[in-house]
Amino acid sequence: MVNGKHPEGKFDPPDRADPRPWQVDTSSPLSSPLVDEWVRSLETLRRTPRASRRQAPEFPTTAGISVVVAYHPGDNLEACLDSLVEQTLSRDCFEVIIVVDGHAGDHDPLLARVEQRAPGLRLRVVEVPHSAAFRFRELGIHAARREHTAFLDANDRVAPVCLQNLLEAADEGTITVARMINFGGNGTPPADDTEIPRIDEEATDHEFRFTSGKLVPTALAKQVERDFAPESPTTFVFFLALLVRHHCVVRQAGGVVCYRAASHVDDHEVRHHTFDESVVARMKIVAQLDSLAAKSDDTTLPLLRGHVDVQADAINTYLRDNPEQHERVAEVIDTYDLRYFPNHRLNRGLAKALAIAYCFAPYNDSSAVVMAKRVRERHDVVDVVYNAMDKNRDKDPSMRRICAPYVENEIAIDSPTYFSNWAAIEAFRVTGMMKITDLERTKGPYARMYSRAMWPASHFLAAAYKLHNPSVIWAAEFSDPAARDVTGAERSAPIGASTFLDDVRVELQRRGLPVLESENSLVWCEYLAYAFADVLVFTNQNQLDYMLGYCPVPEVAELARDKALISPHPTLTPAFYSMVEESYPLDPTVANLAYFGTFYATRGLDDVLMALAALDQETRERIRLHVFTSRPDDLREHVDRLGVSELVRINAYVRFLAFLNLSTKFDCLIVNDALTAESHARNPYLPSKWSDYHGSGRPVWGLVEEGSPMSTRPLAFVSPVGDVAAAQDVLRKIAAEPRN
User: Fold this and answer.
1) Could you tell me the end-to-end alpha-carbon distance of the chain, in angstroms, rounded to an integer?
2) 21 and 38 in contact (C-beta within 8 Å)?
3) Could you write out the DSSP letters of every residue in 681-694?
4) Phi-psi region for residue 643, left (φ > 0), alpha (ψ -120 to 50) or beta?
5) pTM recorded for the entire structure
6) pLDDT tens for each residue of 142-152
7) Domains 27-47+61-263 and 351-566 equal at CATH topology level
8) What is the pLDDT, as a whole number, of residue 188?
């Protein structure tokens, strides 16, 4: 008896055919056909979806140790086996499972020699072609039939008391660790090991980059491998899973020595070169670590995140050498919904561009969404400066997934949140410049800058940086006109005293441009961009013509026109429409229409609601309208008054990625133009929602003004804004279409 455990007795195979023939008690290597059959069954299990996978049947284990030895071509396996032959632990108490690379060659003569020198030593072989490092561990664990499993590499050696002392220190909840000494691979292990440091009895920060010299409970090890199927965890994820999910502790066995070949390459030390090795494989590790985080505690969570940081740093190293691969890296990251991923480490040192957006992700605002999509669209790593809007806007953390793979530093400016208050604009500009200057001290001036105004303060800070760094290429975008409201009236927001505007006037004069006489900060917002930006971005031609048409200085308007660019709001890739799976029951026997958004005086759903109210009963029974809005109670009262409550399902606002997913589920999506016919020659507004609808792949019904930007889009159904009869015709057409 060893440490209260009985030595293993004779293994009695079950009467039925054993699906795992390597469990048969034998000292001979397994025949290749049997192993091949087992490998095929294992691969089938790995390909089976988790939901439908049945847990593999448990097989009895007996007291003692299964020693798994990973054997690669050229390893000094004989010396390793010799050290196992010399163990003080009775040979009845351990078995040796050699997991052999399929190209290792003929190992039978070696095993025959070992068996001759050590009769009674249980040796078994599993041959698997093209095994990665973690597959050696996985296959060895599957084959293990003792209560504990130890791991060695074929170049490792162990002191004679190693297995006995490991077993004496082991229990069902402990990772037992041998003291390690590195040596020169095929050389002779050193005799003096007194300087090797010990670990604490229950340490959880032990380095688990390699498996050598560690003993684990076999049942828990098998469970970890099942938990991560079909992907086997990497070495340190395997050990972290034992710590986090199974609450194991780490214990160092006294006096035990494992001589580890210094030629080994650890998981963290591998210098990857290909994209799959450097990015895809590392993101799989991140996902495995993330899956553990849900059950971690204050002790293990920092450990998990530290290992995620290591993977992000490694991908950063790859991106520094291969910057043209950033888009591919972002696409891989997009496939994971992670609780934690340090994008600032992924992009460390890569941001050569500056993005200024007063409202930015994760704040729930259409302006923030569009700017996040612009960052994604440009594929340019940026540092972002924005206003801290915690008191004024709800947060939608999912929005970070849009832009985070291209953001190094996020600089939130704690300034008062106002649309056009001059003191707030100045506070954002002054504090923003201080933060940007701090960053420049370490990374130098920025080469490119992108600013976007719905909120005017964005362009004021951008203009200040342009004066500070004239060589930066500044692209300035206008969401909507800043100086005019939707009715065409001039917005008024007076400026105050500012040394910045004094500097602006000097620079305008130096360039030979007229100094603006206006005292309106919103007029100045547009004028600064027209005069100083290198590129001006408008979402549509009508907007460009309208805004430059009322510019107070024709000379500057012509200058702006020469550097103007038309760029509609970006549409995200299909991957974003399935990142969040939103459950929403729909009646498949009726046509389901959806509208997402807030209602404004100039942009409402009255056309559709009134058309629903006037429909014949047969058509009413074949159509349903689903509305998702931030003010559901107000709409509910309106719907009740119109008598269409049974036709309209009203829902609260949903977060952005949930909205994208929901948009793919309906038979038709509704978007409507702002009403501008009484104040504008041509409608200059393009609803940003169109870009999101367009990516859904669903038919879109546009309620449009003639000649508007929306009227030129590829709409499946069109009706003029304000024409209830035309809206009724569209509803009848949609209701008459066959359901899928």
Assistant:
1) 70
2) yes
3) SS-----THHHHHH
4) left
5) 0.83
6) 999 999 999 99
7) no
8) 57
